[in-house]
Amino acid sequence: MQSAEVSPGIVGGGVIPEGAPPQDLERRIAERSEKLYHVRLVQRILMIWAYPGNLVILGVSVASVAVLQQQLAVVVPLAVLVPAASLVASARALYRQHFRIRSVHTQLKSLRTEHEEHLLDELGVEDLLAAHKRYRSQLPDVIARYRVESRSCRRKHNAVQSVVIVGSILSAAATTASLSLADARVPAVVLSLLVAVSAAFGGYAKYRERSVNLQQTADALEREYESVELRVGRYRRFGTEREAYAEFAHEVETLRAEQAKRRQHWGQVFVDDDTAVVGR
Q1: Domain limits at 159?
Q2: Can you say how many angstroms the Cα of residue 153 is from the centroid of all Cα atoms in its chain?
Q3: Residues 121 and 84 sit within 8 Å (Cβ to Cβ)
Q4: 125, 145, 158, 197: most buried, per Cβ within 10 A?
Q5: How confident is the model over 150-164, as pLDDT tens digits?
Q6: Is the pLDDT confidence value at 119 over 80?
Q7: Rounded to an integer, what distance in angstroms lies between the CA atom of residue 22 and that of residue 114?
Q8: How far is the C-alpha of 153 from the C-alpha of 205, rounded, in Å?
Q9: Other CB atoms closer than 10 Å to residue 112's CB: what's the count?
Q10: d(CA 79, CA 67)
Q11: What is the reported pTM?
């Protein structure tokens, strides 16, 4: 449905004009990168609405039913319809935003590919060593981004686990209190629901696995970054700097491709790094 937006030709279809100069491609890459940032920001806001937002709405609805016992004929339909409408609307908005991100990412990736082809056309065989060294100089930014994302996933994992642990304790206390206090039954139900949803979400998102894999990839890239310069490890066997750096570019691309496959396995929208891939 929405994915059909990317079906028109990228090259010559308004995204990459045929024969576009490198300067024009760089400008378009910057524009699409900015647009990608904005659509991903909207996606984060929608996720806040979809997960904690709907949970809060559900909790308020349940509490309203418990408090407004005299107006159940009015309150109960609203308590059912409002959370249901919010859930459906947030899910639909997230679904549409997912395909917007895919569309922008596909265009951005095509622009980068076209730009890389321009660069390779301009580079001769003698310039590949310089291209590989330039590629290596850009690698610390990629490593830093992986580590930032790894820390973010670790914080999210800790937050979800904290909600599950604290919520379980409070839910047990509220359930015990509800045996003697009728007013404690609603909080007990809400807390139990919060714990169940948080545990299910944590199992689905797999933040811990994401954090570990991102950190492992960052560490592996850093080893390659240092090893090629010191000519240790796999690079000891190469007699020339050109061969060593060609192997380095190949190995780095292999690591990044493996990380991309993991992202797809997690169900994420894969957004490639800003580092240009040049000459293998």
Answers
A1: 124-265
A2: 10
A3: no
A4: 197
A5: 998 999 899 889 888
A6: no
A7: 9
A8: 9
A9: 21
A10: 12
A11: 0.59
